[in-house]
Amino acid sequence: MDSIKEKMPIIITAIIAIAICVFTFYFLENYEIVYYTKIDNSKIQSISSTDDMKYEYTLDSYDENGKKKEIKFKTSRELRESAYVMLEVRTFGVHSWKEVQENELPSKVQEKMNIK
Hints:
This protein is of the alpha+beta class. It folds into two domains: 1-30; 32-112, CATH 2.40.50.480. Helix content is 30%, strand content 36%. It has helices at 2-30, 107-112; strands spanning 32-38, 44-46, 55-63, 68-75, 84-90, 93-100. Strands 1, 2, 3, 4, 5 and 6 form a six-stranded antiparallel beta sheet that branches. The termini are far apart. The model has no long low-confidence stretch (mean pLDDT 87).
């Protein structure tokens, strides 16, 4: 009985640590920021990969407030030159992307991209 009482703080600490890890991983994996960019095929690089991602772009991108960030993301094909793309970025990189129209860009992004 005494050995259980002695180990109880260790067991409680371990349970708390596991709970914190699970919460942190869930939060980090589901934390998402949207960025917008314009495709510039002079900034594409062919890469060798074991999956079907053959190209990597490194482009200046902007969040909805116009804050600039250089983002790298991989694609399976070259994207359309000068297309506007919305990037869904999670903690571990670009989760997904889709082409959007110029009028779908937030106004601060349009300002930064000199559209207005």
